[in-house]
Amino acid sequence: SGRDDIGHIYTQEPKQEGERRFVLKRPAPGQTGIVAIAWRVPAGLDQDHLRLRVMASILGEGKSSRLYRALVDTGLALSVYLFDFPNFDPGLMTIFVTLAPGVAHHVVEKAVIGVIELVKTQGVLDEELQRVRRAVKVSHAFRQDSIGSRLSGINEAIAIGDWKYEAEFVERFCAIDAASCVQALKTYMHEDAQTVGYFIAQGEGL
């Protein structure tokens, strides 16, 4: 008998059963509010995570992205950032929106959810897929400029669980079709799986 008899134990977080919300208030002179919305996503090596990365690029990468056009171009927000980094374990896809002065949190939250729901019902355009495919090819090419950046990419892939993730990423990313990434969005980015947070600067109202 001994420690070897215990066997391998790996903790898995239980499924989220319903939306969660929190409000954080801090003295922050001169700052505006922030809306953050997060959804649980699968581990980095899961094919659905790759589909969600394609969707994340369509939603939040660059000034042509859906969230930028819906929030920043319309004056609702100063900035929008979507964070979706692959991990060995399941993680989060999180959208952070810095509100424009005078804009209410619930208005921005509604706008973000509206963008996501529109994708669920209408899908994505082929030109959006082509845009994010071009962007990932360019980004990957720039990372090949130095040994340091190449090694960094390989190290991150090893941390995810497979060094080949880095070598095969562009090809696999570009092979994702519109229907599968929309289906992944429907599977993971829904109300019962989301956590919504409001940051309220001192003296600011909801």
Provide the helix percentage. Answer: 40-55%
Rg value: 19 Å
CATH class: Alpha Beta
CATH topology: Cytochrome Bc1 Complex, Chain A, domain 1
Content-based structural category: alpha+beta
Low-confidence stretches: none
Give the CATH superfamily.
Metalloenzyme, LuxS/M16 peptidase-like
State the end-to-end CA separation.
59 Å
Shape: globular
Structure notes:
The chain is of the alpha+beta class and 206 residues long. It has one domain (16-201): 2-Layer Sandwich (Cytochrome Bc1 Complex, Chain A, domain 1), CATH 3.30.830.10. It is 45% helix and 19% strand. The protein contains seven helices and five strands. The protein has a five-stranded mixed β-sheet. Strand 3 and strand 4 form a beta hairpin. The longest helix has 18 residues, at 105-122. The radius of gyration is 19 Å and the shape is globular. The model has no long low-confidence stretch (mean pLDDT 90).
Q: What is the structure about, briefly put?
A:
The chain has 206 residues and is of the alpha+beta class.
Protein traits:
single chain; 206 residues; Cytochrome Bc1 Complex, Chain A, domain 1; 5-stranded mixed β-sheet; 19% strand; globular
Set down the secondary structure blueprint:
Layout: E1 20-26, E2 34-41, H1 47-60, H2 66-72, E3 77-83, E4 91-99, H3 105-122, H4 126-143, H5 147-160, H6 164-174, H7 178-188, E5 194-201
Parallel strand pairs: 1-5
Antiparallel strand pairs: 2-4, 2-5, 3-4
